[in-house]
Specification:
Number of helices: 6
Oligomer: single chain
Shape: globular
Number of strands: 35
Strand content: 35-45%
Largest sheet: 5 strands, antiparallel
Low-confidence stretches: none
Length: 489
């Protein structure tokens, strides 16, 4: 079917008057019966109060010798970037210093700015490229920001709106992937050419350092950096399709393809080791590494003789185990490992060609999320939560093997009368698929209990136990049953 034959092609114009009118019509059809229900307003008011509550955890990111947080509330709808010290953060009411106010910026410029991330140059954490999306679309404008001075840099780096990315090589150099003119974007609408842009030079004078092909999904490049800021190498990733990619070291002699399977992802760089996760099994040097495993390649050996490089196994998941998160601190690797959809946090340190492990003391039978890690020391912020367990933020010291609770989310509903159970269902191919049931303890099993069944398994995204105050208050506390199927991603 061609575009002219598609009777709904007008829906592609997401901001067009016809598309917006159609959406409003569908919303009206749905809202009418919902708002007519006598329970509607009470549930609406309760849910709105929970999701807009300000007594939630201000999740921190390590920034320089302190921490930062991006905060949104009824006053700061678009968001406020702010920072404080760790000592202040421990207090019930931290003393925050504003870095930038996105609502104020949008108002002063008359734009519908939405935060789209920021690239910050370590280890000083002063230079930033802030991405601003007008209305939340994929295309963004990037501007250089001085975190210490708390302002945009006069005459600094600015990238006009587009589907693009920029990472710092050093304080005066960016790696930029963007639309460089006709024929420089992939069929998926993303850049496939990366250039080096030096301070003071016009954008059209940027030097090409790597290119993929127009048939790729996208291309990106970034430096491998030691904790002191020394750049040890540059890796380019060429996404051939959504799952398959090539990883290449960019050297003075040209790109060198790393000896990896197509389904492998760079996750961290620590102690001179490039850490990759494998999404397919791989045979190398007489050894077999299973799908889901975490392995490392020594950067110096890759640069010296790529053909002789042998991978080192960090961790191979066992039956019903998955690796859900990987991050590096100054000298260690932090990995969130799930066994039967229950999380744990394990640290690894590269010693004598091996990766010995240490498990952090965190609550069991809960979800584990890595929030932020420090490249100045071996600390990390970790989030712990469950269906009936409100989120609790821990500060972990990976070197000492300790973890202390820092802040907790207040309970949003009465969980004392509920229980969480886990069962298995058998899929068509015989695979056992776990699922969780959150239900009243005194549930009568007569088939009449109102039940919500939820599941998602696309793009390797897992549905792990999570605390939802709104769902708990409006559904679990009144006696509803909530079921989550942990289907494969």
């Amino acid at each position: 079917m061609t575009e002219t034959e598609d009777p709904f092609i007008w829906l592609e114009d997401v901001e067009g008057e016809q598309a917006i009118a159609w959406v409003r019509e569908q919303n009206a059809r749905s809202l009418a019966p919902l708002e007519a229900d006598p329970r509607y307003q009470r549930l609406y008011d309760t849910t709105l109060k929970i999701i807009t509550a300000e007594d939630r955890i201000p999740y921190p990111m390590f920034l320089g010798d302190g921490i930062s947080n991006f905060w949104q509330d009824s006053t700061h709808v678009r968001g406020l970037s702010r920072r404080t010290t760790l000592a202040s953060y421990r207090a019930d009411e931290p003393q925050w210093e504003t870095i930038y106010d996105l609502d104020a910026l949008a108002a002063s410029e008359g734009r519908n700015w939405v935060a789209a991330g920021a690239a910050i140059l370590p280890p000083e954490d002063r230079h930033a490229m802030i991405s601003l999306s007008d209305g939340g679309k994929d295309a963004a404008t990037l501007r250089e920001f001085d975190i210490a001075a708390r302002g945009f840099v006069e005459g600094g780096f600015v990238l006009p709106e587009g589907k693009q990315s920029a990472v710092w090589l050093d304080a005066d150099t960016l790696f930029v992937a963007r639309d460089w003119g006709p024929g420089t974007m992939t069929a998926s609408g993303y850049p496939y050419i990366v250039k080096r842009w030096r301070r003071g030079a016009p954008l059209d004078a940027a030097e090409e350092i790597f290119r993929g092909t127009a048939e790729d999904v996208s291309v990106r490049a970034g430096p491998l950096r030691d904790p002191d800021g020394t750049v040890r190498g540059v890796v380019a990733t060429r996404a051939i399709d959504f799952y398959v990619s090539e990883q290449l070291l960019l050297t003075d002699a040209g790109p060198v393809k790393l000896p990896l399977p197509g389904k492998a992802s760079l996750r961290a760089f620590v102690s001179g080791q490039m850490v990759f996760s494998l999404e397919e099994s791989w045979e190398r040097g007489g050894a077999t590494f299973p799908a889901g495993a975490l392995i490392s390649l020594d950067l110096d050996r890759c640069l010296a003789d790529i053909d002789a490089v042998q991978p080192v196994l960090i961790y191979a998941p066992g039956p019903r185990e998955t690796i859900e998160g990987v991050a590096a601190t100054r000298s260690r690797l932090l990995v969130a490992i799930y066994r039967n959809v229950r999380g744990s946090a394990v640290t690894f340190r590269f010693e004598n060609g091996r990766w010995p492990e240490t498990r952090l003391p965190l609550p069991e039978n809960a979800s584990i999320g890595i929030i932020s890690t420090s490249d100045r020391d071996d600390r990390a912020f970790i989030d712990v939560a469950g269906y009936l367990l409100p989120n609790t933020l821990y500060l972990a010291d990976l070197a000492a093997g300790t973890a202390e609770p820092m802040k907790s989310l207040p309970a949003r509903f009465d969980a004392s009368k509920a229980i969480v159970e886990q069962f298995d269902a058998t899929s068509k191919d015989g695979t056992q698929i776990p699922y969780f049931v959150v239900r009243p303890r005194d549930l009568v099993f007569d088939g009449d209990a109102p039940t919500l069944l939820y599941g998602y398994g696309g793009f390797q995204v897992s549905m792990n136990p999570a605390y939802s105050g709104a769902l708990g208050k409006s559904w679990v506390e009144p006696g509803g049953v909530y079921v989550v199927a942990n289907i494969r991603g």
